[in-house]
Structures are given as structure tokens and as C-alpha cells.
Amino acid sequence: MSHSYTWLRCWSYGGAISLWMGCAAVQPTVNTSATPPKATPTTPASSTPDSSAAGTRALAADAGAPPLVACVSSDITESRLTAAAPLRALDDWPIDGSDPVPGSDKSVPILRCGAMDSYSFVASIYRCADGSNPLRGNTRAGAGARRGNVGPNQRGHIIDLYEVPCPGGAERVFVDMYECPRDPQGVPSAKAMRVREPLPKESQDLLEAGLKLLDDEKYSEAIDVIQNALDIASRELDADHPQRATLLDLLGMLYLNVEKTRQAEKALASAYQLWKASDWPETPLTGNTCFRLASIYSERQQPALTACLAQQAIALLEPLKGTSDLRLLSAMMMLGQAYLQQGQLDAAERILRRAARLCGDSRGRRDQVFQAILGALADVYTQRGDQSKVDILRKRIQAIPTPRFQD
């Protein structure tokens, strides 16, 4: 079955910094033929979908190389999302879609965090019935689609109403912008403060120049600039300083964008070791690094290592970014698929059902990430021999419109 993933640049009000901080993630293109798709994420390669052949060659060359990261069970921080303990709100998700559609009513809004995140959802992620979004990623237009609030829901959250000017007529969507991770209590920890220490001025200037090149999609040029920034920081900072990890994480992402997977792995593995030595400071970049490494090892069919890194990414990202974060949802899908590869069907079903619930609630049920998670869950029921559930999921997958992107 045909299944491709590309490293997409997301529409974002934050430009290059939002891209680096994880706004870009696996975005699947799913085969909706009569055979349910096999959702297997690949290493994000570039923003150009037609580059898959070159990416495949690069990955094939690296397939026999030993991994540069040793993630073991003692490295894994337990997360409620991945634990075996029941999560009734997530585990009761009906696979047939008989529950109310998220966003269709004040009582079941789409869950986002903050006004700008809500505008970005309406302008970029939301899909009309024909798969299009006429707002074309313009967050100002997303803000303009807001029609006011409709008062509090049963949780006491003020719910906003938006009207998206779809080709078939305006579509109403209700959004709860208060579904944010809990604010940390007290002052930041010493390890978090260390990440916030300034880079040497020359490194900082080069970082800003590199981010500008990233924003312009000049990845090869950005690699040279960020490598220079890293070299200077390495000379002037302590060898274990976590600010070096921030530059290594960015460098790894840039290498992935030009399909140099082994170089990306080296940079990300070095970042991983620095984050671990710093006791995982509270920054989303730690989750970035684990997520990107998990995607590399997932493509190389190394499920045990993929599972370890995906679990770590989820545990690091959830308290800082919440459950609507695309990296977190993608990591949950990778984890479910890694469990499936290892024959752990109960664990695979549990994590994928939770991912489907969270993805549908925050991105809607016409979203391609949601579609890919359903495909992965169908693979679990195929392995179980439960054809009735496979058929239910196949029908839901086929009902999701093909996304249409306008110039």
C-alpha cells in the first residue's frame, strides 16, 4: 500500500523559530483505496514531496549503520499517556465515530491553547468538506473568522465560534482556546535557567542569521551558518552546556531537510547526550531531539529504539506543550507502530486509540494525521484478525476528504 510522509513546513505565525521548535512534523499522504493503508512514518526528508526517491536512497545507505543512541528503560520518564493504567476519557473512544464530532457544538469544541493557536488551527489545519481551507494559512484571516464567544461550556471554559468560508458554504466550528498545559509552579529550575543563558554574541548573531535562512528554506546555507555558531559556542561554553544541545538539535533538523540522515543522527545523538547529562531541562527542544531520533530509527525498522525514544518525547512534550502538539501526536503514532512491530498488540491498540482521540479532539476528523492514526489502528486489528473493526476504520478513512492546497 502506498504511504508517504513529507517534512512539511507548517503555516505558522512564528516563522523559522516555530518551525525549529517543532511546528514541522510528519504529515502523511494516505492511500484511501479499498485496502486499509499501512501507516508507517518515515524520516522527514524535505519540504518537497517529490524528493522521496533520494531520501529512500540515503536511508538505505544508512540502514546497516549501528545506531548512535542507546536509549534504555531507565531513560524513560513515565507519562500518563503511555502508561498501562486506564485513562477512561481516552480509552472509551468509540472506533465507529458514534460520539459527537469535535468542533460541531459548544459542548464538544476543538481543543487548542491560546488565541494565536486557535487562529492557526482555523486558518491552516481545519479542512472544509471538500478538503480545502480557503484561508490558506493566513492567521489574520483566521482571527477574522471569529464570530465571538458563545459563553462557557460544561467545564467553565469560554468557547469561541468561528465561521470558515468554505466553497460549499460557511462552516461553523467551536473552539476552546483554554486547553493548555498547566503552568509550572514556582521559579524555573536551575537546569531550565541554564538553557536560557545567552549564547556568545557571535554565536547568537549566527543563530539569528541561520534562522533567517531556514525561514527562506535555504537549508544548505543554514547548515554552514549553524555549524559555525556551534563551533564558536563549543569553544566558549562548558563542554556539557545545554545551549550546545539547542544548536545541535537545529543542525539535526536542517540535515534531515537536505536528506543527510547520518549527519542528522550524529547531531541529534550529541544533543541527546547533552540533554541527558543536563537531566532533561524543561524545554520543548528536549522532546524535539527525541522525536526526531525516533523518526530516524522508525524508518530504519528498529522498533525497540523507536519505542524508547518516542516514549521519552511524549513524556517531555506533554507537560510543556499539551496534548494538541503535533510532535506528541506523531510520537504516539510511532510508538503504537513500534509496539505493533514487536507483537505487543494490546499496547499498540491502547496508545493508538488514545492518539486518535487526542488528534480528533485537537485537529478535527478531516485531518490527515487523524487519518494516518486510524490506518495504523486498522493494522493492529488486521493482526488480531478482527475484520469487523478493520472494516469500520476503513470506512472512516475513506470518508476523510483528500486535502486540497490552493496557491
Descriptive report:
This protein has 407 residues and is an alpha+beta fold. The chain has 16 helices and 6 strands. The protein is globular and about 60 Å long. It has helices at residues 15-23, 52-62, 88-91, 115-125, 139-144, 190-195, 201-215, 219-236, 242-257, 261-277, 284-299, 303-321, 326-341, 345-363, 368-384, 387-399, and strands spanning 3-7, 26-30, 110-111, 146-152, 158-166, 169-176. The strands form 2 sheets. A 4-stranded mixed β-sheet has the order 3-6-5-4. The chain has a two-stranded antiparallel ribbon with strand order 1-2. Helix 9 packs antiparallel against helix 10 and helix 14 (345-363) packs antiparallel against helix 15 (368-384). It folds into 2 domains: 3-31 and 39-47 and 70-86 and 198-399, Serine Threonine Protein Phosphatase 5, Tetratricopeptide repeat, CATH 1.25.40; 114-176, no CATH class. The two termini are 29 Å apart. Strand 5 and strand 6 (169-176) form a beta hairpin.
